[in-house]
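Aim 2 progress update. The chain analyzed this quarter is reproduced below.
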Amino acid sequence: MICLIPTRMMAWPPPGMAPMHQPIIPKRGLLLLQTARGDLDSALEAYRRALALDSNDLDAIQGMIDVYTAQGDYWNIAEMYERAFAVVPEIRSQKKIMKIYKKACKKANRPVTTI
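Predicted structure tokens:
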């Protein structure tokens, strides 16, 4: 797994937010556990909900890449990388990420985007 963004410790609740406001989407660690245990459908649905709330959520994009990789779904792997590129264009300069993206495009029989 190649991480798109640096991980960071996050306190919950964030400063200034009342403790009764809990996140709608389970924490990434729980989703990683679901993915590792093979509960890919549940993890994928949670990542989709996260992206519905924030289409630029790189944690959710990374999680979907992980799930699609476990499923061997190269079309969606490529699509999620393209979405990540739109959010953080600088990651296109990372050779490992581009290699994985190009491999997914080749296996999915789809063109590599150059934008």
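The radius of gyration is 15 Å. Residues 78 and 104 are 6 Å apart (CA to CA). These observations will guide the mutagenesis experiments scheduled for the next reporting period.
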